[in-house]
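Task card 7
Instruction: Convert sequence to structure tokens.
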Amino acid sequence: MNRHIRHHPNGIERRFSGGLSLLEVLLAIVIFAIGMLALAQLQGNLARSSGDANARTVAANLAEETIESMRAFEVLETTPGQRAYQDIADDSFTVSRGGVDYNVAVTVEDWFFLPDRETVTKDVSDLPENRDTSLSDFKRIDLNVTWAGTDFADAEGRLGSGAFRLSSIVNSIPSLNNAKVAAEGEAIGTPPVNYTPGLNPDIVAISLDNSKFKESTTPEPIVRRRDALIETWFDVITYSQVGDEALFLRREEFAVVSCECTLRAPSGTAATGRRPTLWNGAEFVEGEFTDKQFGESASNQQSQYCDVCCQDHHDTGGGDTSYRPNDGNFTGNHAHFNRDRQGNFVEAAVGDNYLEACRLIRKDGFFRVAQDFSLNEVNAFPQDYLVLPSDIDEYSDHVRAVATAEFTNGSPPPSAADELSYSGRDQANRSEVDIAGQQLRSRGIYLDMITPALQTTIDNCFPTIGQRNEDCIAKDAQSVFEIYPFFDVQVTALARWTETQPEDPVDVSNEEMSSFGYSRGRAELAGSKAGPSTGHSTIEKSNVGLVGTIPIIPEGTQRLKTSDLFLQAGEGDNPPDTSGRVTISGTLSSQGGTSDAGIVSLTGSQGVSCTKPTNTTFMCILDSTELDTLPPTVTVSNYWKNEQTDLVACSAQLTILAFNIGTTATTNWTRFELPQSNTSGISITIAESPCG
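Output:
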């Protein structure tokens, strides 16, 4: 209160005291009340928001728990008393937590990979007719969790019930290092998943000791472009088996791609590519980035993985592990090549296109370029081998012997003919081909080069074979075979098949990959249908062999491996009568920038049979008793290329009778007249029209 003093004219002082008016008091009360009401409303909103956040957290946890419970299936197919992948289906249920009822609606869609292993579909009509659709590759799970309560805000922000949505994927088989769980003092592992081993003789289980086995799925080559740019996929599965029960342990996913690249120079300042991704005995370790020469994909009409293949598949000069140890050393860059107009290999310079082939391994969900595959041995087998358990044991022991010789620096193992007991391994025990024919098979044994890191792991974990060091970084490995990377792969559809005396008395199929449903290694009676023959399975030793294309470096035939299988057609020991037969042989090549001679098809006229012993050689047999037209001819086809539609086949030794320049693989062809006497050294080259 303020005190005021007034001075009266008479000299008398008067004092007055001032106070708050009623209006001021009322205004103060109103302001205070409004503030208290706002505070009360804020507290209510905070309580509701806290309750809403808590409910959404509970709903999110419930959705994640539901997904994780689906991933923890025990078997793939429906089995009484066990959680099965096949049983994951639409569902709805209610869970009460904290006094709130949460309604969970589960929607499940089955999805499948198409043969290209990239495109997916949920429409089974898109799949090949022979595809088993009872088990999908993965399931898409959509969960909608809702709850009731007027105190909560729903998904659209209104007062009322709430909702939370979650979508996820459940794979039928977890990938390598997928779904790992770790706890203090506990081992790392994957959810237990039953595994059905592949069927013999296409997929063969190799023993790793201690009831563990490793097998490779059948490679699936995909023609990305008609000019022989191929992509091949296969998995290596490790599993344990006791009795009839098998448990999935590990999956390694490989791809091999052939590409056309453009060479680039190092930047000099920034990293331009990765060093190889290498196996250290426990896992694949991703290569680090470094500044080095690199490449770029030269076409968008090839595998999407050609980007990383062209970029990384170059070596530095500073003592780093090489992508191509088959070159004989671990250091320095390896050269890249294309072919000139005469089909000769020419080393690529910066700015030039070149041919490339890379081995890829999936690492943390991404494909990385690994060290090249190295084929140690290839074997051709008859149809009835690798069917019986005794055959599998015998072959498994042989594969292990090959691997052991590598990681122990031992002498080469005994040859397959000395160790294996299949018919056809020698001329005294030929494999019979009857009227029904038989499907021959070819298998390759691939051994990875031992890097310093891998050697250290082997030495530390298994100082002697059969003795394990408990400090081994590969915690679950009980045998050296589990940490040394070796692979037994079926290469029947990738190898080249030929036979002595083509199409008499046996014809072994060898169709091009670009042919729909192509056949290789199918032995049928032909010609005289009686007598001995020999089938030959030939494949390139490195990455190129697994994409079925021609060599991409000058060594050519020096990098090929061949296995013979002795055959007997019908009865009789005498070989077919070859009098009146003429053999014409030579090489196949292509000019730089044109198609790839490896995919060329050869078709003879009546009485002329032609085959390709390798991707770069050919042989035609003329039988004078069967010729019905003169002159005899061979038609070269299947050399069309997307970007180049003016291609023909040229030869300095053969006369062109006719040719056609078309726009598809079947409408591009050239027909040559063949000589009627034994002739070798013929050269056929795919070139730009006209022939120079």
